[in-house]
């Protein structure tokens, strides 16, 4: 049984190296062994469509995405870490993250998001860390965090919150470190 597992791992690593050469977006750098894709500072306006499905970590920092459409990450369902810091994101559409049930860390810091909708984080059932600091969040709709029951770190500093409605943080039973503006 142990030999089977080791053989399986070697097969996956060999396949990922082959796949890396065929599916790595030209604007990005890919590491088939670590299953990571890095597309930093490439002025991308949309998520590259040729990212390998088995990618675990995706770094899209310093791009110009502006909006995350529904199903934006449907081709990368195995992501565990997603960095979207400094991407000029204004809106996260309903269902943008719906296929990311394995994601544990999401960095949306230093964007221009002003409203967190009830559906903004649908599908992120395993999320543990959410960084939303340095945005323009004025409003958190009730239930915005409902599906984030495993979340234990939420960063909300340096936003423009003036009123937090009842039920805004409904569903956040495991928060250990919470930061918000004084």
From TrEMBL:
Endpoints of the signal sequence: 1-21
GO cellular component: membrane
InterPro entries, alphabetized: Leu-rich_rpt, Leu-rich_rpt_typical-subtyp, LRFN, LRR_dom_sf
Claim: Phosphoprotein is one of the keywords in the record: no
Keywords: Leucine-rich repeat, Repeat, Signal
Superkingdom classification of source: Eukaryota
Coiled coil: none
PANTHER family hit by this protein: INSULIN-LIKE GROWTH FACTOR-BINDING PROTEIN COMPLEX ACID LABILE SUBUNIT ISOFORM X1 (PTHR45842:SF22), SYNAPTIC ADHESION-LIKE MOLECULE SALM (PTHR45842)
Protein name (database record): Uncharacterized protein
Annotated organism of origin: Champsocephalus esox (pike icefish)
């Amino acid at each position: 049984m142990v030999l089977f597992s080791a053989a399986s791992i070697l097969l996956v690593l060999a396949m990922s190296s082959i796949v890396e050469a065929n599916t790595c977006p030209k604007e990005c750098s890919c590491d088939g062994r670590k299953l990571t894709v890095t597309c930093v500072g490439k002025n991308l306006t949309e998520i590259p469509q040729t990212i390998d499905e088995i990618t675990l970590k995706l770094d899209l920092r310093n791009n110009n995405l502006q909006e995350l459409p529904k199903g934006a990450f449907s081709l990368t369902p195995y992501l565990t870490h997603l960095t979207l810091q400094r991407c000029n994101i204004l809106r996260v559409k309903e269902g943008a993250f719906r296929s990311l049930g394995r994601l544990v860390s999401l960095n949306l810091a230093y964007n221009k998001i002003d409203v967190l909708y009830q559906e903004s984080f649908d599908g992120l059932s395993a999320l543990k860390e959410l960084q939303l600091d340095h945005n323009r969040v004025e409003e958190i709709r009730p239930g915005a965090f409902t599906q984030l029951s495993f979340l234990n770190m939420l960063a909300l500093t340096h936003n423009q919150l003036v009123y937090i409605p009842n039920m805004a943080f409904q569903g956040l039973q495991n928060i250990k470190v919470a930061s918000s503006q004084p």
